[in-house]
Amino acid sequence: MHDPRNSSGRPRRLPHPPGVYRRRRVAAVVILLVLIAGVVAGVLFGVRAIAGSGGDGVAGGTDAQPVTTSVTATPRETASELPERDTDDDDGNEDSDLDDDDEEVKIAEGPCTDSGLTVRATIDRAEYPIGDQPRFGVVVTNIGDTTCARDLGAAVQQIAVRTVDGDRRVWVNTDCSPATGRDVWTLAPGDQAAFAITWSGTGSAPGCFGPREPVGPGVYRLVAQVGEISAEPVEFAIFDPHAPEPEPEPTPEPSPAPEGE
């Protein structure tokens, strides 16, 4: 039957049931939620990527190299200025207490007495330029006839530098690096315990009070002591490598011979 309201002559579409429209609306809402979730995930991924690269904005992502910073230490921080065990003494002999090939187990017959030990101070060079860090040594030798034990830790060692002219105190190892702890050695007759310490080449005061300046040119004396046992002082010199060479003294002219009569 012809519908007079359809003037185009094409067949008229009948409206869909209400359920169809509801399903379309639900599908549109789901698609919109999926799009929003994708945008949020992209933003979060970008934030994590920036945070993972350190937030410094440097291109390269995970290929960027870590940035390191360096701190210049003051002379007080450069050297510990505490004696440490030295496996070789200044004569090139390996310390017998540290020899892995020593099959004899040393059993102390008692504590080492002061009269059964000697202490010797050593230096690696006789002259040092200003600002250099001299290496000092302390060698303890068992001169007794029995195997004995003795605490030779840094707490009982005192290494000092004094001026030869006026015997003025310049530096002591415990001023800025107080020593604690024990280091018990078992020494057979003739055994040596060798220690080494690196001096920063600067002066010091008790309690590390005041600035530490490089020691100037002059002749100095190294003094070492372990407990109540003192070593013979060892002298060394500090010089300025940039100082001009002294002018040579003029050679006096010989006196004229007296005229003969």
Summarize this structure as a short list of keywords or feature phrases.
261 residues, alpha+beta, 6-stranded mixed beta sheet, 4-stranded antiparallel beta sheet, 2 helices
Radius of gyration: 42 Å
Oligomer: single chain
Order of helices and strands: HHEEEEEEEEEEEE
The rough form would be described as elongated
Portion in beta strands: 15-25%
Q: Biggest β-sheet, characterized?
A: 6 strands, mixed
Based on helices, strands and strand pairing, what is the structural class? alpha+beta
Number of helices: 2
Number of strands: 12
Helix content: 10-25%
Distance between the termini: 178 Å
Mean pLDDT: 77
Low-confidence regions: 54-78, 89-101
Walkthrough of the structure:
The chain has 261 residues and is an alpha+beta fold. Helix content is 15%, strand content 24%. It has two helices and twelve strands, in the order ααββββββββββββ. It has helices at residues 18-52, 75-78, and strands at residues 84-85, 117-123, 127-129, 135-142, 148-151, 157-163, 169-172, 184-187, 192-198, 218-226, 229-230, 234-239. The strands form three sheets. Strands 3, 6, 7, 10, 11 and 12 form a six-stranded mixed sheet that branches. Strands 1-9-4-2 form a four-stranded antiparallel sheet, with no helix packed on it. The longest helix has 35 residues, at 18-52. It is elongated, with a radius of gyration of 42 Å. The N and C termini lie far apart (178 Å). Residues 54-78 and 89-101 have low confidence and may be disordered.
